[in-house]
Amino acid sequence: MNNEQDDRFEKRLRFVARRYKEGSLDTDKAWERFASRQGIRRKVSFRRYWMAAASAMLLLVGFGTLYMTERNKPEWVSVVTAPGQLKDVYLPDSTLVAMAGGSTLRYDAKIYGKERRVVEMTGKAFFQVKRNEARPFSAHTALTEVTVLGTSFQVNEQPGSTEVNVVTGKVCFTAGKEPEPVILTAGMSASYSNEKKEIEILTEENPNNLSWKTKQLRFNDTPLDKVIEDLNDYYHVKITNKVDSPDSRLTATFNDLPLDEVLMVINQTLDIRLVPGADKRK
To answer: Protein FecR C-terminal domain: from which residue to which, for each copy (predicted)?
Structure first.
């Protein structure tokens, strides 16, 4: 009996072998026709399912990374003043910043006021900080950081140095690799430079620190060299003294006057000859 079955199977195999042509049978279509007639749903292979799931996961990770990157990306608000331009800027917490010409100020609108109130600046600016003991205010320059709770002060940042002048309240001044911050109170000033590498408390008061803002120049028995220095800074010029007068000193107040009138008064008062040079802003 087994021999007869073997013979019949061999005959059928030879019959199929004689008539089969390579590529003539589409196995996927054959399966679909068979499954359709039998009511069978073809299952997705585990390998194909895993690849699809992995692709979806990578897509979700990509979107998540992009979302977090965009969410944490700073939203910088920047203000720039041209040379000679003065501008008042109100920060989101109502802190007022008076900016001198040729200065920049910026802050991240996304985080300002959340934990701390931080701004970055170059040039010269006068801050009237809205008091908030829970969220200190900090002004950063390239070399230093000034931190306060609520007070008024000026920061004068120049290449290689920064000077801080406190008008009211108290500030914490840190710079470079200084181990301890310096606390400055009303009327105090300090500076830091790359040259000295240390914070220096300034003992000599300069009544013209805020002249760019008040429009007033005050001199009280001031040496001529210091007078010329303040005039250069205020009018953005380079003044030359044509007369040798090393011991000359000036006592005078000028309220928002043009340079030629100021020089005329000084020259007549001290019997000297101060001559303005080229505008340093050009």
So the answer is: 217-273
One-letter amino acid for residue 191 of the chain = S
Domain count, the chain: 3
Same domain, 98 and 191: yes
What is the tens place of the pLDDT at every residue in 128-162?
999 998 999 999 999 999 999 889 999 999 999 99
272 lies in some domain: yes
Whether residue 64 sits in one domain with residue 80: no
202-236 confidence digits (pLDDT tens): 988 889 999 999 999 999 999 999 999 999 999 99
Determine the pLDDT at residue 248: 92
Is position 218 within any domain? Answer: yes
**Last residue of one domain, picked from the residues 146, 168, 202:** 202
Rounded distance, CA 54 to CA 46, Å?
A: 12
**Domain assignment of residue 264, given as a range:** 211-276
Specify whether the CB–CB gap between 92 and 112 falls below 8 A. Answer: yes
